Amino acid sequence: MCGIVCAFELKQKSDDLRPQILEMAKSIRHRGPDWSGIYSDEKAILAHERLAIVDPASGKQPLFSPDKKLILAANGEIYNHRALRKQFPDYKFQTESDCEVILALYQEKGADFVDEMNGIFGFAIYDTEKDEYFIARDHMGIIPLYIGWDQNGTFYVASELKALEGVCTKIELFPPGHYMSSKDGKFVKWYVRDWTDYDAVKDNETSIAEVKRALEAAVHRQLMSDVPYGVLLSGGLDSSVTSAIAKKYAQKRIESDDKSDAWYPQLHSFSVGLEGSPDLAAAQKVADHIGTVHHEIKFTIQEGLDAIKDVIYNIETYDITTIRSSTPMYLMARVIKSMGIKMVLSGEGADEIFGGYLYFHKAPNAREFHEETVRKLDKLHMYDCLRANKSLAAWGIEGRVPFLDKEFMDVAMRINPQDKMINGERMEKWVIRKAFEDMLPESVAWRQKEQFSDGVGYSWIDTLKEVVNKEVTDEQMENAKFRFPIQTPQNKEEFYYRSIFEGHFPSDAAARSVPQEASVACSTATALEWDEAFKNMNEPSGRAISNVHDKAYAKA
Asked: Which residues have C-beta within 8 Å of that of residue 285, sequence separation ≥ 6?
C-alpha cells in the first residue's frame, strides 16, 4: 500500500508548487511510511509515499522507463507481473517491483493494456517527451483514487481526500475500472464484462469445483510478498475461507513457484471484538482447526467511541455502516502493525458476489438477485473497499481481497444466479459453503451471516445509537437541512458522523465525495422494493431483517 499525489497542467511555477505537493504527500504518509520520492519538472510533479511489500530494497518510486521519458507513481500490486514481464524480453527492467511492468506495458501498447493486469491499483504515468499523462484505477476501486482542481486550474491526482482538501475547489472520485488520458481528458471504461447482464449468465452451469479452484488460485497469487503478512479472521465464512486457503500455501514462497521455503512460514491470524463477541469465539475455532498463530484483539466500547473522530479522518466518510465497521478494524490494524505485519488478506467482496447479506433472502427471483449483486459490486468502492483499504492503511498495512480478484470474479459472477438464491434448502452463500466445507469446522462453514459491525459484539452498535441520541437533539435534526444543505443527514447517527467529518473536511467538495443512500442491512435503494417492511426503514445492520437474523431487532 502506498500513497500518491500528482499535479499536471500546472498553472503556477513548478518550483512554487513543489513544496505544496510535498506537504500534500506528507498528509498521506501513513499509507507509505517506508520511503518518500518525488519527480518534478516545469510541467508536472509526481510524489510517492511507499509501503515496501515487493522488492523493498530497490523498488522505490517514482519509477522511470529505461530512457527516463516515462515516470510512474503507483499505489497497488500487480499479481501477474512476472507473467507480464515475459512479454518484454528486450525491456531493461531496473527493479523487481511488480509495478514496473506498468511502464513496459504502456510504452509498448499505449492505453489499451490495463485489462491485461490482474491486481489492485491507482496510478499516474507522465510522458515527459509528449507532455501527456495517463491515469487508471483497478476494476473494483479496491485502491482509492481522487482527482481535483485548484482555483487556478491545476489538475491533481491523489490517493486520499485529505491530500486535496483545502487545496482543490473541485474534488471527484476517479471511477473504478476506468482510465483517463490527457489526450482527450475523458474517462474510458476499460473493465467491461458480459456477466453484468443477467441474460448472459441465466442458463450457465454451476461448477462448485471450478469456484473452489478459482478462489484457491486467487489467494495463492495474492500471497506475493517480501515482508511478513497475516490474515484477518473474523470467524465468519468469508475470512475463514481465505484464511484456510492461505494456510494451505503459506509454507512455500509464491515467487519461487512454491519451490523454496517461505521467508515467513508461520501464518498469523487476527480477530477483533468486544469481550464475549460472536466473532472472537468463532475465529478461535477456525484458527485451531486450520493451525494459524492466532491473536485476539479485544476492545472496549469506550475505546471504540474514543477512536471515532480519528476513524472518520482516516476513512474519509460519514456513511453509517462504514464507520461502525471501520472502528474495530482500525483498532485491530494498530495492533497488527505493532507485530511487524505489513500485509493482510481479508474477506471483502463475497457478500456482494454471492448475495450473502441477509436481505437477499427477500429477492423475488434470480434476475433481481443477480442484478442486485451487480449493483452492489458497482458501489463497493465507496463502502467495503474504502473501509478495508483506509482502516488498514491508516497504520501502514496493505489489505488484499481475494474474493475481488479479477479472474475469480469472472468465474463466480458467471455461475447460474439461481444457484445463489436462498431457499428452504439453501442458506446464503451456499456455493462457497459447499466448496470449502471440507476445510472448515462445520459450525463455521454453516454459520449465519454476521455483518462485521454486528459480529464484533451487538452492544457496539446498540451503544453507538444511544450515544448519538444523546448528542444530537430533535431540534438539530429538524434544522439539519440548514446546517448541511448538501447531502442532508437522514438520521441522528448520520448527523453525528457528518459533524465530525465537517471538522476534518469542511469543503462542499469533500461532502459531495461521500455516497448517501437509504439502506436496510446494506441493501441498495433499489432492493428496498423487495419487501414492504423495508420501505420505511434505514438501518444498515443485518439485525434489521426480521424473521431471518437469529438476533433480529424486535418489532416496535
From this structure: 235, 441, 443, 444
Would you state the torsion angle of the CA atoms of residues 49, 51, 53, 58, taken in this order, to the nearest 10 degrees? 40
d(CA 533, CA 11): 54
Question: Terminal CA-to-CA distance of the chain, rounded, Å?
Answer: 45
Could you tell me the three cell numbers for 13?
511555477
Distance from chain centroid for Cα 374 = 16
- Give 539's pLDDT tier (boundaries 50, 70, 90): low
Q: Provide the pLDDT for residue 242.
A: 98
Distance (Å, rounded) from C-alpha 136 to C-alpha 131? Answer: 17
User: pTM of the predicted model, to two decimals?
Assistant: 0.93
Task: State mean pLDDT over 135-149.
Answer: 98
pLDDT of residue 554: 47
pLDDT at 543 over 70: no
Which residue do the cell numbers 497542467 mark? 9
Contact 178, 343 (CB under 8 A): no
Burial of 49 (0-12, 13-18, 19+ CB in 10 A): buried
Strand partners, 127: 70, 132
Dig out the grid coordinates for 308 from the structure.
Answer: 471515532
pLDDT digits (tens, 9 = 90+) for 313-330: 999 999 999 999 999 999
Count of C-beta atoms within a 10 Å radius of residue 106:
21
Strand ranges of the sheet holding 168-173, from the earlier edge strand across to the other edge:
35-40, 45-50, 3-8, 155-158, 146-150, 168-173
Single-letter amino acid code for the residue at 48? H
The catalytic position among 2, 99, 168, 522 is 2
d(CA 49, CA 28): 8
Q: What is the pLDDT of residues 162-207, one digit of tens each?
A: 999 999 999 999 999 999 999 999 999 999 999 999 999 999 999 9
Give residue-wise pLDDT tens across range 297-311.
Answer: 999 999 999 999 999
CA 76 to chain CA mean position, Å: 12
Q: Where are the alpha helices (DSSP H) in 291-343?
A: 301-315, 320-338
What Cα–Cα distance (Å) separates residue 402 from each residue in 1, 162, 202? 16, 28, 25
Contact 105, 63 (CB under 8 A): no
pLDDT digits 0-9 by tens, 250-309: 988 888 888 888 888 799 999 999 998 888 989 999 999 999 999 999 999 999 999 999
Q: How far apart are CA 73 and CA 85, in angstroms?
A: 19
**Residue 385 annotated to the active site:** no
Exposed/middle/buried for residue 470 (C-beta within 10 Å: 0-12, 13-18, 19+): exposed
